[in-house]
Amino acid sequence: MGSAVVAELLGHGHTALALTRSDASARAAEQAGAETVRGGLTDLDTIRTATADADGVIHLAFSNDFSSPEALAKAIAEETAALTTMGEALVGSDRPLVTVSGTPWVPGRPSTEADPAPTDGPVGGRGRTVNAIPGLASRGVRSTAARLPRTVHNNGEGGFAGLLTTIARQRGVSGYAGDGTQRWPAVHALDAAVLFRLALERGPGGTAWHAVADEGDQVRDIATVIGKQLGLPVESVPAETYGPLGAIFAADQPSSSAHTRAALGWEPTHPSLLDDLTNIKS
Fold it and tell me: Which superkingdom is the protein from (predicted)?
């Protein structure tokens, strides 16, 4: 996702400085055209200095360790500290801070940009943090939240659908929780990158935007395409298969981007999730 955003920014006349945690991530950022500064979400002094020198900030980083509730809580705490540091460094500057979060889920209907991120469940702490970021608008920060759906994909990889693929390879079954009728929204990474740029350039302070191209594909349909590509049977599996994310994997969580499209002129142009999953190799 980071490389896609860097390429989008550079393609529209911006320069980019990327925070990179490893040699591999530094090489990827540099190949995309960004300058780099070494550090991670726990390097608060580095984050503070880089933020103070920037014309605007896009926050994308989050730990990929979902192995346990403790690992997830640690990742949320790290992100909270980093975002708080960014926000404080920008107070009074009227410069933009675009943070990433997930689209919320609302019982019985697709969520919209007006719905707050949930503050309960396994990622509730993250919701409390990202709900607070737009509030920095009252302190002179043009702060916005770009919300990503459950799957951000590119060439058949990424997001929750990517986790389904990984687990299918490990277990020999392309699985889905429950009856599989729950819906997950999705977006191609290159379309999401455009929204981050638009939010940086145009998003008023205190706003939230939805990078949703597919409002909601049934998870059973996602698993069916994965099973076909991998040559595996498609079956319902216990939600516990997905560890601390099990409850989220089982939830129906469609989301709308109607307001984002109308207000920012964002229009996805890349393949849908189900079409992109046909790029999976067995």
Answer: Bacteria
Q: Does the residue 14 lie in any domain?
A: no
How far apart, in whole angstroms, are the C-alpha atoms of residue 99 and residue 136?
A: 12
Tokens of 53: 């020198």
Would you mind telling me the total number of residues written for the chain in this entry? 282
C-alpha separations of 146 from 40, 64, 108, 133, 263 in Å: 21, 19, 23, 11, 13
Q: Which two tokens stand for residue 67?
A: 């192995």
Q: Give CA–CA dist 102/99, Å, rounded.
A: 10
| 129 pLDDT tier (thresholds 50, 70, 90) | confident
Please identify which residue in the block is written with the tokens 């320069």.
Answer: 15
Structure confidence at residue 66 (pLDDT): 64
Residue 122, pLDDT > 80, answer: no
172/227 Cα distance (integer angstroms): 9
Query: How many domains does the chain divide into?
Result: 1
Count, in order, helices (H) and strands (E) of the chain. Answer: 11, 11
What pLDDT score was predicted for residue 58? 97
CATH number for the domain that contains residue 208: 3.40.50.720
User: Measured between alpha carbons, how far is 14 from 8 in angstroms, rounded to an integer?
Assistant: 9
Task: Specify if 115 maps to a domain.
Answer: yes
Q: What pTM value is reported for the model?
A: 0.91
User: Residue 158 CB: number of other CB atoms within 10 A?
Assistant: 20
